[in-house]
Hints:
Elements: H1 12-17, H2 23-34, E1 40-46, E2 56-57, H3 61-66, E3 74-78, E4 83-84, E5 88-95, H4 103-126, E6 131-134, H5 145-154, E7 159-160, H6 163-169, H7 179-185, H8 190-200, E8 208-210, H9 217-227, E9 233-236, H10 246-259, E10 266-270, H11 275-281, E11 287-290, H12 292-295, E12 303-309, E13 312-313, E14 324-328, E15 334-338, E16 355-356, E17 358-363, E18 366-367, H13 373-387
Parallel strand pairs: 6-7, 6-11, 8-9, 9-10, 10-11
Antiparallel strand pairs: 1-5, 1-12, 2-4, 3-5, 3-17, 12-13, 14-15, 14-16, 17-18
The site of 1-O-pyrophosphono-5-O-phosphono-alpha-D-ribofuranose has 13 residues, from strand 11.
Amino acid sequence: xxxxxxxxxxxxxxxxxxxxxxxxxxxxxxxxxxxxxxxxxxxxxxxxxxxxxxxxxxxxxxxxxxxxxxxxxxxxxxxxxxxxxxxxxxxxxxxxxxxxxxxxxxxxxxxxxxxxxxxxxxxxxxxxxxxxxxxxxxxxxxxxxxxxxxxxxxxxxxxxxxxxxxxxxxxxxxxxxxxxxxxxxxxxxxxxxxxxxxxxxxxxxxxxxxxxxxxxxxxxxxxxxxxxxxxxxxxxxxxxxxxxxxxxxxxxxxxxxxxxxxxxxxxxxxxxxxxxxxxxxxxxxxxxxxxxxxxxxxxxxxxxxxxxxxxxxxxxxxxxxxxxxxxxxxxxxxxxxxxxxxxxxxxxxxxxxxxxxxxxxxxxxxxxxxxxxxxxxxxxxxxxxxxxxxxxxxxxx
Length: 397
Ligand SMILES: O=P(O)(O)OC[C@H]1O[C@H](OP(=O)(O)OP(=O)(O)O)[C@H](O)[C@@H]1O
């Protein structure tokens, strides 16, 4: 079945219906119905059973929650914008057949968005005082553009480039000029291109001139500053094969702009940048465009596991039995404990001063939570401070 648009895209109705499922869940439904079984279960969505020292930023809960609307289940989840390290991020309770076929889409929503949001948080923390924009739409299937940009914002990025994603999110995409614009004017005609852009673009569009198309970045940066009175920044997107020491190029541009009296013209850097490069460059530049580090982030490896069957402890090998709670302590700790209070000591007992992170999301099939992206962004920044989040990934060259 092809989407009526003609694109190979699974339509939203199929996701909501539970048809975006692995086929073995269809077999499971058939078999359980044949055997007249529909046990009451508690299931948990977990990446790591125990803490690993690698924090991740939870995202995708808004879309995941929609799957449960109208289904006879209760769902609790950590709020979007909180960090986690081990233990469940979501708990579902109800007759198993109510949500069996939703597992595939549920994990997909949470896994992909959490991976992207965590990578965005890494970029954010690598350059806390710089503008950091999401430029990675071109690397991923267009059907997930809004997820990528929303997750990038959740991680703390300041804006994004995908226009249609902006329409979905109710926010305006930003951007200035690609190399194609310079090339359309021809070699040696960079001034004409920058000036035409300045004349054509709306007053709300920042005047940022791309200065690496045909000649040396230092040369083009000074020429752009001379050509456009209101120039805000120059953008260096130097192609990899010409890059050499990018930090040196950036510092040389800064030096020369200052020396020529253009100290009010900022530098914007983009192209293959990740947390390590942001840390190296951040004192010399005003802003960054980050693409693949965020958009191509590895999805978090969430799984859904039944942990109680008809009130009894259950779990497959390698997974921890029993309904759990996760707690954040004032010192930034993350604790996983049994939910029923039966444990009064040791690692399965709740910490004395812990904040319970799993909160009601769905009750009897009704969504009981509001989603406010700005509030979630603030939560993520605060929680990253609390737990001392640092990017662990070394993103190579
Ligand atoms: O962080 P990244 O994974 O590199 O992704 C984003 C980059 O992609 C674009 O480069 P490109 O050279 O394609 O721009 P152009 O179309 O203007 O040549 C853009 O200028 C960003 O720098």
